[in-house]
Amino acid sequence: MCYSDKKRVDVLNDYKTVRNVSVLCSKHGIARGTFYKWLHESQTERPAPRRKLQHTPAHLIAIDALLRQRWCRD
Hints:
The protein is built from four helices and no strands. By secondary structure, the chain is mainly alpha-helical.
């Protein structure tokens, strides 16, 4: 069965207050195995924080200039 991301988030947020897996699964109509799978995924699949570049490296500026010369001729 396929569940929406919202359902997963709701169940995991509810787990913070309920803390009884049997009651939680009965309340949301999911299997215990499904809950533990979601819990494991939420703890292990956190994306690395993205860093924003503070400046554009000089070599990228040079490549951009060369490409503009080649492809943007009027």
